[in-house]
């Protein structure tokens, strides 16, 4: 496990806070992503991109597949006391390779 994944899981174990943007994206009728699915990706997914110079601090993109065999991406930012869930979405197969980890 990478150091950054450890930092993400450590923050997540304290608390996960969803931004309004994340909740809005998760609740789009064509997505309907549950919090449990997001938790599943955080716990079992792979960090595929890191955004070290983000204005709000370090954040990253996690890719994974749910128990229901659905690919999801979660963008999150570990903070001292919580993990900020910035957004969650179903990756577009026209923009991602078949493994949903590599941009086309």
Question: How would you describe this protein?
Answer:
The chain is an alpha+beta fold. It has one domain (3-89). The protein contains three helices and five strands; from the N terminus they run H-E-H-H-E-E-E-E. It has helices at residues 3-14, 20-26, 35-44; strands at 16-18, 46-51, 59-65, 71-78, 83-89. The protein has a five-stranded mixed sheet with strand order 1-5-4-3-2. The longest helix is centred in the N-terminal third of the chain and has 12 residues, at 3-14. The protein starts with a helix and ends in a 15-residue tail after the last strand.
- State the low-pLDDT regions, or none: none
What share of residues is helical?
25-40%
Number of domains: 1
Largest sheet: 5 strands, mixed
Q: What form results from the Cα inertia axes?
A: globular
| Integer average pLDDT | 94
- What strand order characterises the main sheet? 1-5-4-3-2
| Rg for CA atoms | 13 Å
Q: What share of the residues does DSSP label as strand, in percent?
A: 25-35%
- Strand segment count: 5
Number of helices: 3
What's the SSE pattern?
Answer: HEHHEEEE
Structural class: alpha+beta
**Terminus-to-terminus distance:** 26 Å
